[in-house]
Amino acid sequence: MIRDMITKTNVLLSLLVIVMVFCALYALGTFPSLAEEKVKSEADSFGDLYTGTIFEGKITGEGSVKFKNGSTYRGSFFEGRFEGKGKLVSADGWSYEGEFKDGRPDGKGTFCDTSGGKYKGTFSKGKISGKGVYDTPEGVKTDGKWENLDPSGSGEFHYADGSVYKGQFEAGVAQGKGVYKDATGWKYKGEFFSGNFNGKGKLTFANGETINGNWEAGTPN
Predict the structure, then answer these.
(1) Is residue 72 part of a domain?
(2) Distance between CA 154 and CA 134 in Å, rounded?
C-alpha cells in the first residue's frame, strides 16, 4: 500500500462514545411540586442540579444542569430533554456544542474528542452523519460526507505533511475515482480500491515522467 494511504481515521473509536453517552444521560427527573416559574437552583429526583425554567413540573425552556458525575449542559430543554441549541461538556473531557433533538445531537454542531480532535458538521440521532470536517491535533484533516462514522462519497483527506487526496471514499478508505498529490511532487490520478491505486490510472513524477495504464494493489501491470 503506497504510504499507507487513505486508511480509516482515528476519529472512529473516539466518536463512538458520543453515541453511547447520549443514549444514557438525557431524561432528567421531574419537579412535581413546582408550577411554571424560574428557579435559582433545584435538585431533581436523580440528584442532578438544575437552574432554569420549570413548566408543569418539567424542565422546559432555557437552563443549565450539573450532573452528579460532573458533566454539565447549558442550553434549551423540552420536558426534561435537551432540545434546540446547547452545549454539553462531559466529565470525561469531550464536549458537544450545537443542535439537539430528543436529547441527542441532531443538526449542525461541533464535537471535540478527548484526543484533541474536532469534528464540525452535521449529526443525526446522536451520530455523525452528513457533511462535516474532522481535524486531528497532528494536522490531518478529513473533509466530506460521513456515513456510519466513516467518510463516504466524495471528500478530501489532508495529510500533516501537505499531501492531499481528493475523490471518492467508501467505508472510510479511498475507493473509486480520485487524485492523490504527494508533498514530494508526484501525483496519481485514476481509480482506487481499498486505499490503493487499483484500475486505470496515471502516475506523474515530479520530473514530468509518467506511468499510464492499469494498476493492481498499488503496482502497475
Answers:
(1) no
(2) 15
- Supply the pTM of this predicted model: 0.80
CATH code at position 129: 2.20.110.10
C-alpha 100/C-alpha 117 separation (Å) is 21
Q: How confident is the model at residue 44 (pLDDT cuts 50, 70, 90)?
A: low
**Main-chain dihedrals φ then ψ at residue 16, nearest 5 degrees:** -60, -25
pLDDT tens column, 47-63: 678 888 887 777 888 98
Is 160 within the bounds of a domain? Answer: yes
pLDDT in tens, 180-192: 999 999 999 999 9
